[in-house]
Amino acid sequence: MLAFIAQRIGKAVVVLLAIVVLNFFLIRLAPGDPALVMAGEAGAGDQLFISQLREKFGLDKPMPVQLFLYVKGILSFDLGYSFRQQMPVSKLILDRLPATMLLTGTAFAISLAFGIMFGALAARRAGTWADTAITVLALIFYATPLFWIALMAILLFSVTMEWLPSFGYKTVGANYTGLAHVLDVGAHLILPATTIGLFFMATYARMTRASMLEVKRLDFVKTARAKGLRDAVIQRRHVLRNALLPVVTLAGLQAGTLVGGAVLTETVFAWPGIGRLMYEALLQRDYNLLLGVFVVCSAMVLVFNLITDLIYRSVDPRIEYAA
Amino acid sequence: MLKRTLIGLALVCGLNAVAVAEEPKVGGVVNAVIQPEPPGLMLGLVQNGPTQMISGNIYDGLLRYGPKLEPQPGLAESWTVSEDGKVYTFKLRSGVTWHDGKPFTSADVLFSIEFLKQTHARARGNLATLDKVEAPDASTVVFTLKEPFGPFLGIFEVGSMPMIPKHIYEGTDFKANPANNTPIGTGPYMFKEWQKGSFIRLVKNPNYYIKGKPHIDEIYWHVIPDAAARSVAFETGKIDVLPGGSVENFDVPRLSKLKNVCVTGAGWEFFSPHSWLWLNNRSGPTANTKFRQALMFAIDRNFARDVIWNGLGKVATGPSGSAIKYYTSAVPKYDLAPAKAKALLKEAGYKGEKVRMLPLPYGETWQRWAEAVKQNLQDVGINVEMIATDVPGWNQKVSDWDYDIAFTYLYQYGDPALGVGRNYVSSQIAKGSPFNNVEGYSNPEVDKLFAEGAVAFPDTKRDEIYAKAQKILVEDVPVAWLLELQFPTITRCNVKNLVTTAIGVNDGFRDAWLDK
């Protein structure tokens, strides 16, 4: 198994470098550059000002040199400097990553747990009113745009009922510590995490339901039943366990996008995460920062893919490791 | 009946009198919105809008400007101008210290001038006529100009010329100085904390040079990227101050109707944001003067003000806004007249060629406005194609002159020589920047008038010159002027005395106080 992991990591590094080079050129295909954006925001800018900025950003050097310098930096774990934010990219990302991990991690856990639960329930009660209700709700949450759900949630729970805060990740200036701090962050977490979670929950529920109904018809389930096993055991150990494989595949894919996938939610709820950082870096053509976020996100996807493969094996021991 | 009314009046008047005489209360915390998050707070290096708004609390300028743009004491307590208009002598306040305790002296002023000439595009332009600046003693600074420069007393506002601490920056690489992350000024508030993506926190400067000011203890500037979320944050009481432009215009009427909410349009007199359509004077249909005049007759600017801007702002009459110096309304008028527009288009020989229009990618209001203008132009038979961009794309296209009609608005900085002339004189035609004569208009007479206007002395001469320039420009229509914009500042009514000068919230919370 260790050899398998080592091999996969080796491949991942190559993939990562390819991603860096590709992104480097893709980003520069977009019109405008950081110097123009900054001059634009300053509301004034003569030629000298803009050329000074370009020099500062290193944009006056030929493209291959810029790429060489960037890749050289990456290889020594240096993600470069964001001139716009006047901070090293790695510090900016590390500052914002925990907030995103907390948000998407919570959403992921909630959606997976409830998604599988509701999916299994629907499959077991296939054809009853419970099944219909779950299926319809899942369809609605799957089809409704995230930002609309977010805005409606704010309108209902923040503006009308005044139960939950509408922005930020903690009460600024309150200086809570200990349990009060945890509760405060928790209250801020509910709306954004639910917003992201509902969508994924819907996908997992539908996937689990379909998959379970399929497995149920297979011969080994009939055999188990014929052996006289209790229904609950059959459902849990025979049906659900086998039905989970496609769900794990899907969850693995989605886990990879969790880091960068929360742009909309983070923006609407002013959550200080990395999705927003990436979006702003894009609008400001902050090349180093944008590339840095891409690198980190890509690395995450690779890591999650590896983890998914390992989980496969533990869910279904028949699957063998092969790089 | 009459008696009762009189008593009522007396009561109202009495209450008002009490309100005026109210003593500022000390203490409290203010929550304000900042949009977008500034790239840095060192005002000498970064001049974008949000930086100016926050850092106006941290730094001071030599002068401040009242609503009529009259100079008021800032770090300079008095000033004199020589008879020939070339020598300006400033007397600095005594007892002013930087946030780290070091005294502020005339040496800092000399250093700031040198600093800003290197880093601040606008200051560089403003100081072009400066011959030398000297400090005969620690509290006196003497500026000598090569020739009289009419707007000279108007360039000392904190955003245009912030004072920079010499003891921190002298002999260092300004842009790489670690102190940039913990800005030090002489202003009423000190930088305390910045959690990127969340908030910036300023605290009261206990040693501010005006005894008893500032009144408020702390200011939190919250970063909330979504416009709808910003108005919700205000609605739910988490935010006390929405500076101009921080919510979409269509939310303003709803928010201003809330209980205990005050709205003011004041505080923009110095900037006077002026919006227009940049018309490409070089090529395409827009190169024809008659075509450009037709645009002015075709666009319903009253509709834009009433519907898109909710009645805020004023229809622009020409290149100068009505709040800035030497404005004249004695210019040709362009009222809505589609028939006239059609006739002019015919005269111009317009055959339905495609015209590319760039909206300003600054949110919904601007998008709607572009759609309304497109409709106006289509109604008189102009074939408009809308080009969608994001902000960097817009900058690039405008800087490269790759457009026919482009929305924009520019600040005017109180004087035609500072913020108006740059858009019309030939010397400002340069590819690669969106803040000069982008439309490519070139008229030797206008060039001459703006050149003379800047150095004419005394002011009565400037009046004549600029009136003439405005008249010529309005006849030529190098750009299609739209509105004098107004960005309302929305606050809870218990935030008192916030907007007191011509730069409004940008002048900081020096005089503001909270009625708890």
From TrEMBL, chain A:
A Gene Ontology cellular-component term: plasma membrane
Keyword check for Amino-acid biosynthesis: no
Chain ranges of the ABC transmembrane type-1 domain: 97-312
GO biological process, one term: transmembrane transport
InterPro entries: BPD_transp_1_N, MetI-like, MetI-like_sf
PROSITE patterns registered for this protein in UniProt: ABC_TM1
Transmembrane segments: 12-30, 97-122, 134-159, 179-202, 243-269, 289-312
Membrane-protein topology: Multi-pass membrane protein
Chief place where the protein resides: membrane
Pfam families for the chain: BPD_transp_1, BPD_transp_1_N
Annotated signal peptide: none
Subcellular location per the Swiss-Prot or TrEMBL entry: Cell membrane
Keyword check for ATP-binding: no
Protein name, as recorded: Binding-protein-dependent transport systems inner membrane component
Organism: Rhodopseudomonas palustris (strain HaA2)
Automatic annotation (TrEMBL), chain B:
Compartment annotation: Periplasm
Leader peptide range in chain numbering: 1-21
Keywords, ordered alphabetically: Signal
One BP annotation, GO: peptide transport
Keyword set includes Glycoprotein: no
Classification via InterPro entries: Peptide/Ni-bd, SBP_5, SBP_5_dom
Keyword Mitochondrion attached: no
GO MF terms, alphabetically ordered: peptide transmembrane transporter activity
One CC-aspect GO term: ATP-binding cassette (ABC) transporter complex
Ranges of residues in domain Solute-binding protein family: 70-420
Pfam families: SBP_bac_5
Annotated family: Belongs to the bacterial solute-binding protein 5 family.
Record-linked PANTHER family: D,D-DIPEPTIDE-BINDING PERIPLASMIC PROTEIN DDPA-RELATED (PTHR30290:SF38), PERIPLASMIC BINDING COMPONENT OF ABC TRANSPORTER (PTHR30290)
Protein name: Extracellular solute-binding protein, family 5
Organism encoding this protein: Rhodopseudomonas palustris (strain HaA2)
